[in-house]
């Protein structure tokens, strides 16, 4: 839940963009911007954005793997280990 101090109007954003950028860098808490009293956008640091995108990518991969497992497309642990061992042998 955002703190009240991080809910700002769009006019505040226009006049304090540099300060918002500094605050994001220092404490990392995103800013929720309102327009005409309604939520309009969320501003977060580039680092937070990249971390969130990486997490989403990992979750998608896990979900795809789980979907394939449920469809019976996976292989057993023993088969996987055998494939890894064979790949190591080929590299030698």
Protein architecture, described:
It is a single chain. This protein is of the alpha+beta class and 92 residues long. It is 62% helix and 15% strand. The protein is built from four helices and three strands. The protein has helices at residues 10-15, 17-27, 46-70, 77-91; strands at residues 7-9, 31-35, 38-43. It has a three-stranded mixed beta sheet. The mean pLDDT is 92.
Cα end-to-end separation: 54 Å
The rounded Rg comes to 23 Å
Specify the structural class.
alpha+beta
The residue ranges in which pLDDT falls below 50 over 5 or more consecutive positions are none
Note the overall shape: elongated
Count, helices: 4
Indicate the proportion of strand residues: 15-25%
Mean pLDDT rating: 92
Structure, briefly:
The chain is built from four helices and three strands.
Topology of this structure?
Blueprint: E1 7-9, H1 10-15, H2 17-27, E2 31-35, E3 38-43, H3 46-70, H4 77-91
Parallel strand pairs: 1-2
Antiparallel strand pairs: 2-3
From the structure above, extract its key features.
single chain; 92 residues; alpha+beta; 3-stranded mixed sheet; 4 helices; elongated
